[in-house]
Amino acid sequence: MNISKATAGETTVSAAARADARPIREGEPLLQVDNLGKHFPVTAGLLRRQVAAVKAVDGVSFSVHKGETLGVVGESGCGKSTTGRMIMRLLDPSFGRIVFEGRDITKMSQGRLRPLRRDLQMIFQDPYSSLNPRKTVGAIVGAPFRLQNIKTEQGVKKAVQDLLELVGLNPEHYNRYPHEFSGGQRQRIGIARTLALRPKLIVADEPVSALDVSVQAQVVNLMEDLQDELDLTYVVIAHDLSVVRHIADRVAVMYLGKIVELADRSDLYERPMHPYTNALLSAVPIPDPKDRGARTRIRLQGDVPSPLDPPPACRFHTRCWKAQEICKQVEPPLIELSPGHQAACHFPENTTVSATDEVSRAAVAPGAAPAPGEPPSGPAGTPPPGV
Ligand SMILES: Nc1ncnc2c1ncn2[C@@H]1O[C@H](COP(=O)(O)OP(=O)(O)OP(=O)(O)O)[C@@H](O)[C@H]1O
Ligand code: SF4
Ligand SMILES: [Mg+2]
Is 30 helix (H, G, I), strand (E, B) or coil? Predict the structure, then answer.
């Protein structure tokens, strides 16, 4: 694909628009998230008193460097979208910190956030509902320019046509309506709209899961091409590991509002440490028929517990075939078990080191669990059916 940075809607930026922007320092991440959480209150009665809280996201920490793609995966309801929406500041965090380009944006007012909105953009899952059916493609893709009161050098129409071409659509279709496009083409329109303001960080929430498998690869390839050409940074959210396999540099695996493993892509796919990651990986289709016998599907028992009342200590213990007493009593911290590879498990796989730190060792009675890092024995350590 022959695309240039200049075609991506180069704009004349108003003086105020990026007034407080500053270049990030050497080695500093573009985005830093520290102990971020969102608890949705559950209210009852006439006075709408809070009676409980949905712990949608419960203290996640990660960073994303410029030009990098972080994949965030996990089952439905584990808090992926809530995390993405907090990063975008579409949702106010309950606790924690979001630092973008060195600035703490956690509590920034909507007024101060406005110029930052062009740097932070989101691609939504559903290309059908995320586009206004009453607006032409020209109006949809051109809206960000108008919203931010930005005049482009070539005029909005030309800039939009350039963007349509950039994402592989016919610029002549400027006056068509969303229903005149296929699902894959609609997602391209969504991507063109996202790119209009040349964002620095794009959070793509399940960008291809509503699309046919054949079209998914095209959209993922498009996102990769655009990343190279436009120096984009992505957080890509997906519910399984196959989608982020090609696009992500690093992958964070979430379970019930927490990150349970975070590693470089190849490390995570080749040497997963957390049992949950192993189970997710075992569900990823293996393209080469010769290799298909090499991996056995791990079928997790039971449903994901409710985030209203998550299991204590290791939240995965109710479904983990390796669970021991310590897993029900002491929360395994997310710590680096090999360079760049973090996992939160008392009995991680593919390593001799354990996430059980000194604090957790002291917290359980001697003999309650096998030595950290050693495979557990007995009924609790028996692999699930299918392993
Ligand atoms: N506004 C809200 N009020 C109350 N609970 C909410 C709200 N938004 C999300 N939740 C709950 O928070 C939890 C996490 O939701 P979230 O949408 O982040 O999950 P997800 O990982 O994106 O799931 P999916 O893969 O289905 O999109 C879920 O239990 C959900 O029901
Ligand atoms: S072995 Fe224990 S700590 Fe590790 S995932 Fe299973 S239940 Fe959690
Ligand atoms: Mg979601």
Answer: coil
Please compute the mean of the pLDDT values over residues 278-285 and round it to a whole number.
Answer: 86
- Predicted pLDDT of residue 368: 42
Dist. CA 31–CA 232, nearest whole Å: 13
Pick one of 3.40.50.300, 1.10.1740.10, 3.40.50.800, 3.20.20.70 as the CATH number of 258-381: 3.40.50.300
Kindly indicate whether the domain formed by 5-248 is annotated with CATH number 2.40.40.20: no
pLDDT at 107 over 60: yes
- CA angle (31 as vertex; 220, 201 as ends), nearest 5: 40
CA of 38, closest atom in ligand 1: 12
Note the pLDDT tens digit of each residue in 124-165.
888 778 899 999 999 999 988 877 777 766 788 888 999 999
Q: In angstroms, what is the span from residue 99 Cα to ligand 1's centroid?
A: 23
Amino acid at 249: D
Mean pLDDT of the chain: 84
Q: Is 243 in the pocket of ligand 2 (CB under 6 A)?
A: no
Rounded distance from Cα 74 to ligand 3 centre (Å): 10
Q: Find the mean pLDDT for residues 40-66.
A: 94
Better pLDDT: 155 or 331: 331
Does residue 9 register a pLDDT over 60?
no
Our CA dihedral for 322, 323, 324, 328, rounded to 10 degrees, sits at 160
Structural contact between residues 93 and 36, judged by C-beta atoms closer than 8 angstroms: yes
Angle at 230 between CA 215 and CA 1, to 5 degrees: 50
Same CATH fold assignment for domains 5-248 and 258-381 = yes
Atom index in ligand 2 nearest the CA of residue 322 equals 1
Beta strand 69-73 with 250-255: parallel, antiparallel or unpaired? parallel
pLDDT digits (tens, 9 = 90+) for 209-249: 888 888 888 899 999 999 999 999 999 999 888 889 889 99
Question: Domain spans of the chain?
Answer: 5-248, 258-381
Classify the C-alpha dihedral 57-63-66-70 as positive or negative. Answer: negative
Q: How far apart are CA 336 and CA 348, in angstroms?
A: 12
Q: List, in sequence order, every beta strand (DSSP E) within the chain.
A: 11-12, 31-44, 49-64, 69-73, 95-100, 103-104, 120-123, 151-152, 201-205, 233-238, 250-255, 258-264, 335-338, 341-343
